[in-house]
Amino acid sequence: GDSVTQMEGPVTLSEEAFLTINCTYTATGYPSLFWYVQYPGEGLQLLLKATKADDKGSNKGFEATYRKETTSFHLEKGSVQVSDSAVYFCALSEGSGGYQKVTFGTGTKLQVIP
Amino acid sequence: NAGVTQTPKFQVLKTGQSMTLQCAQDMNHNSMYWYRQDPGMGLRLIYYSASEGTTDKGEVPNGYNVSRLNKREFSLRLESAAPSQTSVYFCASSEGTGSNQPQHFGDGTRLSIL
Hints:
heterodimer, A: 4-stranded antiparallel sheet, globular, B: mainly beta, 7-stranded mixed sheet, 11 strands, 49% strand
């Protein structure tokens, strides 16, 4: 079955540091890939997505490239801010049996210190 | 811009009690979902409704029932609460069942079963 593996957290960085959160996946078909962000006390929000191989999703300075050959979708940001502190979820989505089947990773907590 | 609204935000129950979690979306989305979020396990799908008038089991449906009341509303019912159902519950919606469509989440209901 489908699965998503994210790097273990928490990840602690100083403000303006470079961020990478690794994500690899296993899928039977041709999934779309997503990064969601969850701030304390809130639900998940879409951060970015990519729907086919070699697509790059980007938003708010974050980027991720859909790499089919390495089955990866790593999240990167060149310079993190304190406001980026949150939990980040990698997810894959496939249409399956008439519904949108989404498989989430376990989440990576990011803490950015001033 | 309410999006997905969940009520209540917090609830404490005793073992054996019943309750209904409410969810409503104002985006005219066809598909709605209920997830539970537990530490270290990501999000797991409880039930989904691909369209108005249909509901189906997800990954962890035991102990739960759902009702798609209309296109906007999708409720989750615990008939006889158990401590293992202590969790954070999220409702989500999407425009349809296509794999490339993001899901939109409510802020969650934090449920404790004593």
